[in-house]
Amino acid sequence: MKTINELTDAQSYLVALASYISFVVMALFVSILFMAALGIANALVWYAIYSLTLEGLGKFTKIRSVLLVMTISGGAIIPPLYGRIVDANK
Fold this sequence. Notes:
Layout: H1 9-54, H2 61-88
């Protein structure tokens, strides 16, 4: 087995390329795992955020609850709708 100093230029290039590819693949994999973990954390904290948002509103609790649900629904509906509008105008 050759040491790193005994490798040819082509072999050195292949080692560097393999190292880079493995780094990118692992970084992508770790990024995807952290995105999933972020979603899980948001799901666990959601009920606390929702109740804190509605706390102390008195007679406006129902209105604020409706607005909060509408903003969530809008966040799920508006981006795909906007994407279709943009794609249709290309």
